[in-house]
Design goal:
heterodimer, A: alpha+beta, two-stranded antiparallel ribbon, 4Fe4S_Fe-S-bd (chain A), iron (chain A), electron transport (chain A)
Chain lengths: 495, 286
């Protein structure tokens, strides 16, 4: 057992209202620079939909992540030799059009236009070329249009559902959509790190945050292809790749990352997970059906005395272990088994988990009475989004896992309904709790964490112990006196 | 490598045989400064009453031109030609545009030469070859190898290609310090070529070949090579080079294009094009 600490995340999709406040907070802090205009380290996309960049989930096109072969895990992008042969020519990159061409408006024209019969307009101009453009796409172009024939209908996850289900899904009366906010997953087995020929990408030992060294990056852009989530972006201005840094400068000063901090729906949870690094490979190599289970097994209980002992041997500080014990992520992922990794079949063992959205079941209105088909609260099978669709997103096709999550979420709701209105039929709550395999104290705790938890409960930011992490290579006192912070760069001379 | 030092030494005595004028020069070496000088410096290109070689027959030249002009011309022919002297220019045109080299003679030598020319002693005519020493019949392919430096000169002379070019000699051609020798056989004519090869009288070549003359066999090979070179090859063969470069460029472009076809194009545009193919109506609109 090789214990590692990872700052990990849960997004509760049930609560996401698609307001993009997280994206704006991130953009304002990190990617509001020349060359980074098109980047959204945090983006919110509408599902069903093709996402940002277009069809990022389609690895037949982008060849990101890992594939399981007879010889074990292999990068889908290329072999070592193949990568060398293609080092000057990486054919698997999204074009700027697949992200979208960033633009602004000529607002000045509104004020400076001469008097005339027509209202002046602010024309859109490209932020890349500065020329006027026709806006054709954006990072969430299809916002709220789950049924759109172009983007909604081409969601790669729809391949898993039947033709009839697909037709139903896009009937106007049954139209359904939900939001999927995405940041870097800070994977335990990152494809970008493996694909980088310059060795510029690394996963920080103390907190598992994946970073691109701006000093070492040589712009090969293999990381852009290697990441199956397309969460590494190439900056055309600086000639370096960039990605979500999980706001480590904020975290090191005890603050939650900006997107977490600003989340209006309070859907985001952050905390430390302990995992067994020796099991990463085994976990990523399992057949699709077992991937989620394998990933859960990889995560270790921070209260287990044996784990604590091993963790301390690995140099994980007691304060970090204490934070891990308070981690809401651990509860969602391991204790309640509600949060699932996005596309575990990509093999990167993502460390960002999602609670699938419990969308309202389809109901009929008969004789003035609102009916939700048969059962009291409907059943997972009656969900508007087919279980198969969600399974394709969150469990590599294993519907049973989604069904289990849905049962729990329904039990929580029925329990709350019984507690607040008492309208629940006799025996219904007990039946649901038994089916879901939870007790009322579990549902109470889930309800509390989903709905009532305050800022500090949702964001158990661990102490970052930078001095301790540094101690491994230099004496912190020396470092303090000599180094300061950041890079040492020669000043730009004027001659 | 050809090691023919010994035979070369033996044949060295017969150097004179290559050039009939040279032969007589050695015989009469003690016959006066002017005569010896003429034999050494002028005879490769000029005769007195023996007809034209590379340059004009100098019989009666002292009566044809005035002495001052002759002095100027012999001491610095390059300068006279460059100064736009009409006589020098006419001669240059007349004699296949082969300029007379500046032999670096001092005033005494020029005077001695002019005195000798004024004396009117005739050199034997071109055809009067001593029968005892016929020029060896050369092998043109051996000459080409000697020219290109594939075989070294027996006496250690520098390969011709270092300074001279002959059309088609090597992929990169020869040096450009000396003139292009492609048409040297027609420009110089047989006799002049033979004597030039034997003595290599040109000022730039003197310090290089002075102590390393060519053996008669080598001279013959080179002469045969030059004779063959003339009609065989045009001055510069540019057409095949242009064709090859063009074909290479086209092949590279095609290869790049073929590789580029495997590149991922715009995914979104393809999607939109496919979805709006049927008159803008999507597949799943209920």
């Amino acid at each position: 057992m090789k214990v590692r600490a990872q700052v990990s995340m849960v997004f509760n999709l049930d609560k996401c209202i698609g307001c993009h406040t997280c994206s704006i907070a991130c953009k304002n802090i990190w990617s509001d620079r020349r060359g980074a205009e098109y980047m959204w380290w945090n983006n919110v996309e509408t599902k069903p939909g093709t996402g940002y960049p277009t069809l990022w989930e389609d690895q037949e096109k982008y060849r990101g992540g890992w594939e399981r072969t007879d010889k074990g895990l292999r990068l889908r992008l290329h072999s070592r030799g193949g990568g060398l042969a293609k080092i000057f020519y990486n054919p698997r990159l999204p074009t700027i059009d697949d992200y979208y061409e960033p633009w602004t408006y000529q607002y000045g024209d509104l004020l400076s236009s001469p008097a005339g019969d027509d209202q002046p307009v602010a024309r859109p101009v490209s932020l890349v070329t500065g020329e006027p453009i026709d806006i054709e796409a954006g990072p969430n172009w299809d916002d709220d249009l789950g049924g759109s024939p172009v983007y909604g209908a081409h969601d790669p996850n729809l391949a898993s559902v039947s033709e009839e289900e697909r037709r139903q899904l896009f009937l106007l009366e049954r139209m359904v959509l939900f939001y999927l906010p995405r940041i870097c997953n800070h994977c335990a087995n990152p494809g970008c790190v493996a694909a980088c020929p310059a060795g510029a990408i690394y996963k920080r030992g103390e907190d598992g945050i994946v970073l691109v060294s701006q000093e070492k990056c040589r712009a090969w852009r293999m990381c852009v292809s290697g990441c199956p989530y397309k969460k590494v972006y190439y900056n055309w201005g600086s000639g370096k790749s960039e990605k979500c840094i999980l706001c480590y400068p904020r975290q090191e000063t005890g603050q939650a990352p900006a997107c977490f901090h600003s989340c209006v729906g309070r859907i985001r949870y952050l905390g430390v997970l302990l995992y067994d690094a020796e099991r990463i490979k085994r976990s990523a190599s399992r057949p699709d059906d077992e991937l989620v289970q394998a990933q859960r097994e990889m995560i270790l209980d921070p209260s287990d005395p044996e784990v604590v002992k091993k963790a301390e041997e690995e140099g994980i500080h007691e304060a970090v272990l204490a934070a891990a014990r308070k981690s809401p992520v651990y509860r969602f992922v391991k204790e309640w088994r509600l949060a699932l990794p996005l596309h575990p079949e990509f093999g990167t063992v993502p460390m960002l988990y999602y609670v699938p959205p419990l969308l309202p079941v389809a109901a009929d209105c008969e004789n003035g009475r609102y009916e939700v088909g048969g059962e009291f609260f409907g059943s997972p099978e009656q969900a508007r989004l087919p279980l198969r669709y969600l399974a394709s997103l969150f469990s590599a096709g294993n519907e049973e896992i989604i069904r289990e999550v849905y049962r729990k979420l329904m039990a929580v709701r029925v329990h709350r309904r019984a507690a607040t209105t008492g309208e629940v039929p006799e025996g219904e709550l007990e039946r649901l709790l038994a089916e879901a395999g939870v007790t009322t104290s579990d549902t109470e705790a889930i309800y509390h964490m989903s709905s009532l938890a305050g800022f500090d409960e949702r964001h158990a930011v661990p102490p970052f112990m930078r001095e301790m992490a540094m101690e491994m290579s230099v004496d912190p006192a020396d470092r303090k006196g000599e180094g300061g912070t950041g890079f040492l760069r020669p000043p730009k001379r004027g001659w | 490598m050809m090691r023919r030092i010994l035979p070369a030494m033996v044949v060295a005595v017969a150097i004179s045989a290559v050039s009939p004028f040279h032969g007589s020069a050695e015989e009469n070496a003690e016959g006066g400064g002017g005569k010896a000088l003429f034999q050494a410096k002028c005879s490769p290109c000029h005769t007195i009453g023996g007809g034209r070689l590379v340059g004009p027959d100098l019989k009666g030249v002292t009566t044809l031109r005035d002495r001052a002009w002759l002095e100027r011309f012999i001491s610095a022919p390059d300068k006279v030609l460059a100064s736009g002297d009409p006589v020098a220019a006419r001669l240059f045109q007349e004699f296949n545009k082969v300029p007379m080299p500046n032999l670096g003679l001092d005033q005494d030598q020029v005077d001695a030469l002019l005195d000798y020319l004024a004396a009117g002693e005739e050199t034997p005519p071109q055809g009067a070859k001593p029968a005892a020493a016929p020029a060896p019949k050369g092998d043109p392919s051996m000459g080409e190898k000697l020219f290109a430096g594939e075989f070294t000169f027996a006496r250690g002379g520098t390969p011709c290609i270092a300074c001279h070019h002959v059309a088609g000699i090597a992929p990169l051609g020869g040096g450009t310090l000396g003139p292009d020798l492609t048409t040297i056989a027609t420009t110089f004519g047989d006799a002049a070529l033979s004597s030039a090869l034997a003595t290599l009288p040109f000022p730039t070549m003197k310090p290089i070949f002075g102590d390393h003359p060519l053996t008669p066999k080598e001279q013959g090979d080179l002469r045969a090579f030059f004779r063959k070179a003339t009609p065989r090859r045009p001055a510069v063969e540019t057409t095949p080079i242009v064709l090859c470069a063009g074909a290479g460029l086209l092949a590279l472009l095609l290869l790049t294009g073929a590789l580029g076809r495997r590149r991922l194009g715009s995914v979104r545009k393809a999607l939109v094009a496919e979805a709006t193919k049927g008159g803008g109506e999507g597949r799943w609109v209920g």
